[in-house]
Specification:
It is built from seven helices and 14 strands. By secondary structure, the protein is α+β, with helices and mostly antiparallel strands. The strands form three sheets. A six-stranded antiparallel beta sheet has the order 9-14-13-12-10-11. The protein has a five-stranded antiparallel beta sheet with strand order 5-6-4-8-7. A hairpin with a 2-residue loop joins strand 10 and strand 11. It starts with a helix and ends with a strand.
Amino acid sequence: MKLPREKILKGSKNLKLIEPLFDQAEEALRSWKPLWTPFLSAPIREEALNIFHSLIDLDCYGDGGYPGAERQRILISRTNEKEPNTKELAPIKGLLITGNFLFDRATIKDFQMALINNGASREMIGDIWLNGDRGAQLVCDAETAVLLNNQTNLIRNVKINYELQEINNLKHPLKAIPKEIKTVEASTRLDAIASAGFGLSRAKIIKKIKEGKIRLNWESIKQSSRSLVKGDKVQLEGRGSLKVISIQVTKRERWRIILLRE
């Protein structure tokens, strides 16, 4: 069964990454067998889910191994293929990466490069989070977890070991309790609102924007002066996210802003 790709994908912001998912969707329709996509970044996942939810013949949902996971796999199946209210868990395992980083801190990018150097594919790696100075934890597809289990590598001069873990045995990253923040700002600039929402100085926010650690609606952004509107979401690496709930102008021509921090 062929899907009307050109019509559906018209105006897509992520055309090259979304289009291959249609091959899997068409295969799921032809074979009547549910199929899992590779791990998808948040913006790709959200766009794909919105597209597939609009198609009558398809059901889909995401699973990243734990609640709130950013990178997730999507299960694509024919409508009513599964019994109502039942969800199949993605074929995902956990990995524990151990090493002594007390005197030589490692970043998530360091662990990503080590995984790839050990033969892992980026598409089969989910979220990675640091485990203090003892290494990191992550989720990946089952085949990758088996491949890497008991392997070793070096991050600079620090030896690391991989150990397969069941998802339930991982210590998942802490999820912030949602908090409503009210602030009055002179502008609706990204740096001003992010400063108020994350409790950091504007200088630090601008620095993090330049470092690529802040995203707007899951997309990289380099403009600290970008104006935000209601519904925008701002993500700061390691500090959660902000959603703009409302923006209203005051009598003194300032901006009364309500944010939801998660």
